[in-house]
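Project standup — Tuesday

K.O.: blocked on the structure for the chain from last sprint. Re-posting the sequence here as requested.
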Amino acid sequence: MPYWYYDKKDLQNTPSFRDGISNETENRYRKEGARFIIDTGSKMDLGYNTVATGVVYFHRFYMFHSFKTFPRYITACCCLFLAGKVEETPKKCKDIIKVAKPLLTDQKFSTFGEDPKEEVMTLERILLQTIKFDLQVEHPYGYLLKYAKCLKGDRAKLQKMVQMAWTFVNDSLCTTLCLQWEPEVIAVALMFLAGKLSKFEVVDWNGRTPKHNAWWDMFVEDITMDLLEDICHQVLDLYSPQTQQSGGDSPSETSTSKPPKNEKKPPSITPPASVSPVAAVATKPVVTPVKNGGETKTEPLKMEPLRFSYPSYPGMPYAPVYSAPPPGVVPHTVAAHVPPHSVPPLSVPPHSVPPHSVPPHSVPPPHTVPPHSVPPPHTVPPPHTVPPHSVPPPHTVPPHSVPPPHTVPPVVPSLTYREPPPNHTRFGTPVSVPPPNYYPPLPARGPLPPRPLPPGPPPPRPYYPPP
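H.V.: unblocked you, prediction finished:
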């Protein structure tokens, strides 16, 4: 089974990077593809497991291929199409394309070609070969609920913390965390982050032993604070307001237009901490600077029936637009940023050592004998090549080289087995076989004798009532 976890050094040396795409542009492409899968899956009422599986397929695919070779939106539709079949929530390919078309501009949808369905179906084979038919994917959602049931404390605060952690798991799909750490580690880290933001401190938990210094030691051992903080920073960087380029086709050309001098920074919005997690919250539109011809777009936030607001966090201005499963609205102004400090991963990727690194001719076969080597003493030439009178005299051959007389096989003219000619008289006197009509025919049967009837009326038949 392939190993799908990579070091940050490998994540910065992808096929797209070697193809001339910068790491910042590749991260933006990954984010846009993941957001596209989430939006399309939400419109088709697909479960969060299906959407998350499609996003993981998407990230794994571009660890082996470049964004220049395969446009990201076709790959996203293909990943969602395959994930629907794997998670037993299948959708037709034409329905996925029909829902995805309004989410894309005409320029982006033109990458699908004249027959979008054929493009997606053809790419499915390449996707299956790329992910090596490893279709089963685990997500942090199940571990998140499992770990939360073991914690003790105020139930209202615990529920608030779990819902916030669930939102962070949804947003972490836009990063490459699924290529760095196992789902158990991601669940622990995002629960730690949600507990800090919701001011829920875990004091006690079920199954606690003296050797457990923190609650996560019971589930995953040897997790350091540096590792937890690194994962938390990668998720929190999604909510930092940064100027982004408008998404183009794969690959996109670098915009040469400069931002206007009088451009203002987006206002920092901190929702109140007293808002109920299930109440509908009306927020002001967020001014998002979009670097597209030097214009600034104002994107109002959509209202959802279920909202969750987070307390203020230094350096994290975001609006309460996240909801519990199925995946809700993902913020428009997100930008994945890999922190400068690196955390050692779990292991080395499988493709780091090429299978053909040792030439086939470097190791001679075990049966190879140099031409000048002396044959073993028991070696005897074939009998048909040595005439009986060609045996050398005794004084010309060393005594140990003469084979014993019983080891010389007799001369056989041919080893081919031939069927002997038919001999009907080999059993002596031929056996007389009677003809088919040896037994005389049976006489014709006459009429059967009359069957005697029992005296008296027939016995009554038993009655069985219907069930």
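K.O.: great, moving the ticket to review. Residues 140-251+270-343 form a domain with the Cyclin A; domain 1 fold (CATH 1.10.472.10). The chain has twelve helices and three strands.
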